[in-house]
Design a protein that fits this description.
This protein is an alpha+beta fold and about 300 residues long. It folds into 2 domains: about 5-145, Triger factor/SurA peptide-binding fold; about 170-265, Chitinase A, domain 3. It has helices spanning about 5-30, 55-90, 95-105, 110-125, 125-145, 150-160, 180-195, 200-205, 210, 230-235, 270-285, 290-300; strands spanning about 45-50, 55, 170-180, 215-220, 245-250, 255-265. It holds the Pfam family Rotamase_2. GO terms for molecular function: peptidyl-prolyl cis-trans isomerase activity. This is peptidylprolyl isomerase.
Length: about 300
């Protein structure tokens, strides 16, 4: 994914997560008047209440507009402008292209199902919402690169310069128990060999506050993860799924590492690699996607009426 793509995708994810979460934020932020609730305005029904204080739909919508109205309006204007430009240029995005793009995004997660589950669990983004955002991003990219031509020789040169960029990396689902001394690590290993549960032991004795409450679970890491201690990663890479190793000497402590699962992502085809490089090079030569949105809003005379939202 290019810098432009990453920037847009991060924006999409953050905006979507904010929109999905802002209703809950407002209910608990304490930003409502403290006086007793008057009868709600005609046509405005209560959507929530606390004790005898009703929160009406009009109040809710007004608060949403004040805090997020401009961003949402800009998003809507962008969608309409991009749709108009795509129609004018005869550009579209097929369902198959969206599925392929989601498959590409899923590769580092080991499976599409795991990826979709993480998106919903961590960000609250459903598969339907993800497809909508992916369709928009692909449409925007197609418009941005519609007049850019990339020679096959440029693709060859890029692949020669970055031969490992599209090599899928092995992923390991790891857990660990960190203790103060080698002797304590040996005692933990003995308890594990006697049948005690790894997660239970981690919760009882591990020093690592970030993983202890999750039974020592680190989660999925790539084979060259720069944030894991090299000794821990080296030990994990020597194991098979279900294996436990230790003691592993860290800087001032010792660890026992458990490999729950190993994921070997499927390598992309030569055709898909060249297609990805072609798009990446084209995007690097085109206007940025945010600038393209601005240009299209201007081209199609997008306006926000004065007083509609706080600018």
């Amino acid at each position: 994914m290019t810098r432009q793509e990453k920037g847009l995708w991060a924006t999409v994810i953050v905006l979507t997560a904010c929109v999905l979460g802002m209703g809950g934020w407002m209910l608990f932020s304490g930003n409502f008047p403290q006086e007793a609730s008057p009868p709600w305005k005609e046509g405005s029904q209560p959507v929530a209440s606390i004790q005898d204080r009703a929160i009406t739909e009009d109040e809710w919508v007004d608060e949403l507009k004040k805090r997020y109205g401009r961003e949402m309006l800009m998003t809507m204007l962008n969608r309409h402008a991009v749709a108009l430009e795509a129609k004018a240029k005869g550009i579209d995005v097929t369902a198959a292209e969206v599925e392929t793009e989601i498959e590409v995004m899923s590769r580092s997660y080991g499976s599409k199902e795991r990826f979709l589950s993480e998106m919903e669990d961590q960000l609250g983004i459903t598969e339907s919402e993800l497809k909508t955002e992916t369709t928009y991003r692909l449409l925007l990219e197609k418009i941005a690169t519609s007049d850019v031509h990339i020679e096959e020789q440029q693709i060859d040169s890029y692949l020669e310069q970055y031969p490992d960029q599209f090599r899928p990396k092995k992923q390991l689902n790891l857990s660990m128990i960190e203790v103060a001394s080698e002797d304590e690590a040996e005692r933990v290993m003995d308890r594990l060999e006697n049948g005690e549960d790894f997660a239970d032991l981690a919760a009882q004795v591990s020093l690592d506050e970030y993983t202890r409450e999750d039974g020592g679970q680190i989660g999925l890491v790539e084979e060259d993860d720069p944030f894991l201690p090299p000794a821990l990663l080296e030990a994990a890479l020597s194991l098979e799924p279900g294996d436990i190793a230790g003691p592993v000497s860290l800087t001032d402590t010792y660890a026992i590492v458990y490999v729950k699962d190993i994921i070997e992502p499927q390598a992309p085809s030569e055709e898909s690699i060249r297609k990805a490089v072609r798009k990446q090079l084209a995007l690097e030569q085109s206007v940025s996607l945010s600038e393209l949105e601005r240009q299209l809003r201007e081209k199609y005379e997008a306006r926000i009426s004065a007083g509609t939202v706080t600018l």
